[in-house]
Amino acid sequence: MELAINLQPKQHELLGLCEDSPCSWIGYGGSRGGGKSKAARDCMLVRRMKYPNTKGMIFRRVYEDLRQNHIDKFLSEFPDFEKFYKRADHEVALPNGSKIVFGYAETLDDVKRKFHGPEYMDIFVDQAEQLTEAELRQIKMANRWPNMPIGKCKMVLFFNPGGVGVAFLKRIFHDRKYLQTEDANDYAFVQAYGWDNVMWAEPSLLAEGLTAKDFYSWDSERRFKYFIEKTQYGRELNSLPQTLRVGHLLGSFDSFAGQYFAEVFDRDRQVIPQDNAEALIRPWWSRWISIDWGFAHYSAILWHAKGIASPKELKHLLGIEADSPQGFSADDCAEYACWGAGADSQDFPVTGCVCQARQRQHHCRAVGRCVFGRWTAATASGG
Ligand SMILES: Nc1ncnc2c1ncn2[C@@H]1O[C@H](COP(=O)(O)OP(=O)(O)OP(=O)(O)O)[C@@H](O)[C@H]1O
Ligand SMILES: [Mg+2]
Predict the structure, then answer these.
(1) Which atom, in ligand 1's list, is nearest to the CA of 42?
(2) Fold of 9-192
(3) What is the distance in A from the centroid of ligand 2 to the CA of 353?
(4) Closest ligand 1 atom to the C-alpha of 158?
(5) Beta carbons within 8 Å of 353's beta carbon, 6+ residues apart
(6) Residue 214's Cα: distance from chain center in Å?
């Protein structure tokens, strides 16, 4: 059977890693529109055709997204395979005995149930940033196939910056910081950008008498310029507010909104009971509120209070050993302590807080619980 598959260079790199590298975790991530989801479908099909009687899964968190972004697209890209698609099972049963399963699981419990038992030679998780590390690790346990040599089974995580899983993805694929039990050779990463995908540039290239081959002969900088100047999608991404632009256009893991507290916030260390906060914060301390309205996703409202605490109070109420016997000066406090309360937009309980700069993380404490609220449409427009 003839397959109409034309992998772009980065997609080809991914297939190469699947085939030839010893890694069992592969990341394919970055900015929007880089060709990640298409790579998932094409590489999955190539591998199922190459390895008869094997099973692979394309996964998304929510069924409706899976249907729209993968099942429907797969069937329209490969109409000859429609007759092999079993609707009730959400799977394509190929004539060589291989299967492509389209899977989803919305909660950790779902993940545990669905991935306890079945085995998949390949598991490709699209929008993997929507899953937690615990969920991804649970899924990985089903990534095995009998009689397969080491390194042949692959778990590929396709993702954009942001989302609940971003700290884990950033650590293993971008920072490459591994725990003692992890082996760096088990992880590989392909950074994908919108300007790696010639599809966006095709109309302009055509109008200028240029081809995809010309496009890929340019270096990344030239393709980037062409993307943001001469393609509709590139222009739109380039005109986003900066906090979104760095993630959606540039695919940056370092500065994308939501990253700030990812490696700093440890609930056990940074959260203190509300009673302790009430004992600590005095009526004469200065207080203020800050709001991050969250352009597209979450908003946070923080109540802060700042003042001088004695070494005894710091020790008993916060577990901090003060360096100076006089306690903190007002200036120290500005640097060291920024107590506050966060609330969601529904009921504003003064029960939580997030505070302090990364380099002062040891002196940072939050009160009660930390709540990030989601604006309702009405609140957002009023806000
Ligand atoms: N090799 C290819 N051949 C033909 N079309 C392609 C190819 N790669 C990507 N495309 C097309 O480019 C568009 C964007 O690709 P895709 O949806 O895979 O990007 P993405 O990185 O998953 O985007 P997002 O970040 O929004 O999830 C889609 O219409 C897709 O079909
Ligand atoms: Mg996608």
Answers:
(1) 1
(2) Rossmann fold (3.40.50)
(3) 34
(4) 22
(5) 277, 302, 303, 304, 339, 340, 341, 342, 366, 367, 368, 370
(6) 32
What residues have their beta carbon closer than 5 A to ion ligand 2? 36-37
Q: How many Cβ atoms sit within 10 Å of the Cβ of residue 56?
A: 26
Of all protein residues, the one whose alpha carbon is nearest to atom 25 of ligand 1 is 32
Residue 290 pairs with which residues in a beta bridge? 302
Q: Answer yes or no: are the C-beta atoms of 336 and 363 closer than 8 Å.
A: yes
- Residues carrying CATH 3.40.50.300, the chain: 9-192
User: Looking at the CA of 34, which ligand is closest?
Assistant: 1
Give dist(CA 184, CA 280) in Å, integer: 45
69 lines ligand 1 (CB under 6 A): no
Check residue 213 and report its DSSP letter.
Answer: H
pLDDT in tens, the chain (383 residues): 667 899 999 999 999 999 999 999 999 999 999 999 999 999 999 999 999 999 999 999 999 999 999 999 999 999 999 999 999 999 999 999 999 999 999 999 999 999 999 999 999 999 999 999 999 999 999 999 999 999 999 999 999 987 888 889 999 999 999 988 999 999 999 999 999 999 999 999 999 999 999 999 999 999 999 999 999 999 999 998 776 788 899 998 765 544 445 445 555 666 667 777 778 778 887 777 777 665 555 556 667 777 777 777 777 877 766 555 444 443 443 333 333 333 333 322 223 333 333 333 344 444 443 333 322 222 222 22
